[in-house]
Amino acid sequence: MPHSQTFDILLVEDDPGDAGLTKAALAQARILCKLHHVNDGVEAMAFLRRQGIHADAPTPHLVLLDLNMPRMSGREVLAAMRGDEALHKIPVVVLTTSDVEADIETSYELGANSFITKPVDIDQFIDSIKAVGDYWFSIVRLPQ
Prior knowledge:
It is a single chain. This protein is 40% helix and 17% strand. It is built from 5 helices and 5 strands, in the order βαβαβαβαβα. It has helices at 16-28, 41-48, 74-82, 101-109, 122-139, and strands at 7-12, 33-38, 62-65, 92-96, 114-117. The longest helix has 18 residues, at 122-139.
């Protein structure tokens, strides 16, 4: 993909503070993206499957997925995406406060492309988001 392209990122995050921090970090990292935010896994699947109010949603180039959410967890979203022919190729970066080894192993077993524990320090968090953007949108070649 050309570097000047604007990428669609789906942020699946139920915590408003973490969602705002991620949005700010993406802006500060100057990642050319259109960020779409949903609050839980049920809404994420509706977005990804273009259902209801998300009928016109784009297919995201990347999903940033929290693990611990109400209604449908990030683990369930990941399993559903990997089991869906139309969604299984979309890269998923688990972005969570968890650093529990079982969560890391389960995320990779379910098909996560990366697992990042959110740093508590704001500058480290911004650096992590910038690294995610640089990696996924400057280095890696994604399917069209």
